[in-house]
Amino acid sequence: MEKRFLAIDIGGTTTKFALLTAEGEILSQGERATEAEQGGPHIVERIKALIREQELPLEGICISTAGIVDEEAGEIIHAGPQIPNYKGTEWKKLVEAEFSIPCEVENDVNCAGLGEAYFGAAKGKKSVLLLTIGTGIGGCFLQNGEIQHGTSHAAMEVGYMQIPGGEFQNLAATSALVRRVASRKKESPEEWNGKRILFGVEEGDRICVEELDRFCDTLSLGMSNLCYAFNPEIFILGGGIMARKDILLPKIREHLQEHLIPLIFEHTELDCATMGNQAGFLGAFVHFQKKQAERLGKE
């Protein structure tokens, strides 16, 4: 039997997974609810159950997960309130102890970046910035195919970056766009989402048009700061709202040009993520291969 790897992408709402060959070919894939609100220990049991369902042998378990990850230890060292009791989850230790299968773990946005860099929109690029825009904003930076983690494994936690008005993610995430449109409409935010706002833009709804332009300007302001700091070859934008790149990319590019000097703007390619729901588990697979090779080299 050919070598097979189980790659798992644990999101706040959905857990996506796939069986892959050693070349990264997808043999099968699926998804199931994460049930994050029930907490870290519950998620661990669900992932263990998923592993038990697989036909053995497996050469590796590759995990992409929300939270700040110590990729060396394979442990969650910080997690938001969306997943209670998740901090301290020792994924690598737990999986390897129970199944005797090598396991590697990486942050979900970093995995999305690896997925795009090795299989998607940033393939072949030496210097890559990626942002995922949704409820919050996450980011990663790759140089020569390697994730830059920082001293405490928290590099590119850009949602907390300060821009005029407050935190970047509180002003330029899709959730912020939804809140502003709903407020101006005097309606509940639950009645709105990015898709409905973009439909309103196409229909010429003045409030939707104005707030989308504000959103693109604020997003591009934060992006420009990152461009000045990292000077990437390509800047990739992901997240559900970016599915409408036909509307968003021209607006973001226009505002980005306003915030950048020509030398940087003219040498920064801008695109949207192309790997969709596969980016996370494919990136987890890439991380597994890299980390295992690194550990072997240290022996």
UniProtKB/TrEMBL annotation:
InterPro entries: ATPase_NBD (IPR043129), ROK (IPR000600). It comes from the Bacteria. PANTHER family: BETA-GLUCOSIDE KINASE, ROK (REPRESSOR, ORF, KINASE) FAMILY. Belongs to the ROK (NagC/XylR) family. This is ROK family protein. It comes from Oribacterium parvum ACB1. The lineage of its organism: Bacteria, Bacillati, Bacillota, Clostridia, Lachnospirales.
